[in-house]
Write a sequence for this structure.
């Protein structure tokens, strides 16, 4: 290919909006889902969302976010613990929100209160500095045998205070996650 043809291709690419910043990740994906999860429900939800996106998004724990410059789109998900974002997600946003906030296309929270956890989305958006058009509150789980001693004691006391049995709970919803992933994918195209 001649230098003239290469120059013409480069000029055309620039006209069409290509830039090194808009490049795809090493495996060809333009989106990444970053999650903060203590017991695995948020991670599972992130993987189901990725399935809804046709596996067109990488899925990473926020603590392993690394270099995000190859991604045009970012989806953030956080478990909710004692009415707060996951500590690693909160730390990530504190350190890197200015770097990513214009590329965040969706937020989701996973909590024991399920879809009723929508108020936590405002907390998440406030920490990010903006609220994307796509947000979703999803249900989580807790499994007593996986809980830390502190969380076990706290949940046991909570359930006792509301006169409810302290039992394992699973409010995850694969279909809701997959549908949210499909909704995100439509936005990216």
């Amino acid at each position: 290919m001649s230098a003239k043809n290469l120059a013409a291709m480069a000029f055309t690419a620039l006209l069409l909006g290509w830039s090194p910043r808009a490049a795809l990740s090493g495996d060809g994906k333009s989106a990444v889902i970053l999650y903060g999860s203590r017991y695995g429900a948020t991670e599972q939800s992130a993987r189901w969302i990725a399935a809804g996106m046709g596996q067109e998004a990488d899925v990473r724990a926020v603590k392993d976010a690394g270099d995000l410059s190859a991604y045009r789109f970012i989806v953030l998900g956080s478990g909710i613990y004692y009415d707060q974002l996951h500590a690693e997600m909160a730390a990530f946003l504190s350190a890197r929100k200015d770097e990513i906030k214009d590329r965040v296309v969706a937020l989701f929270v996973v909590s024991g209160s399920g879809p009723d956890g929508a108020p936590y989305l405002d907390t998440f958006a406030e920490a990010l500095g903006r609220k994307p058009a796509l947000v979703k509150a999803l249900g989580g789980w807790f499994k007593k045998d996986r809980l830390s001693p502190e969380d076990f004691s706290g949940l046991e006391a909570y359930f006792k205070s509301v006169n409810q049995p302290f039992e394992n709970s699973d409010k995850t919803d694969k279909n809701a996650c997959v549908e949210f992933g499909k909704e995100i994918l439509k936005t990216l195209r």
User: Anything to note?
Assistant: The chain has a mean pLDDT of 85. The radius of gyration is 19 Å. Helices lie at 3-15, 41-52, 87-100, 119-128, 149-161, 174-188.
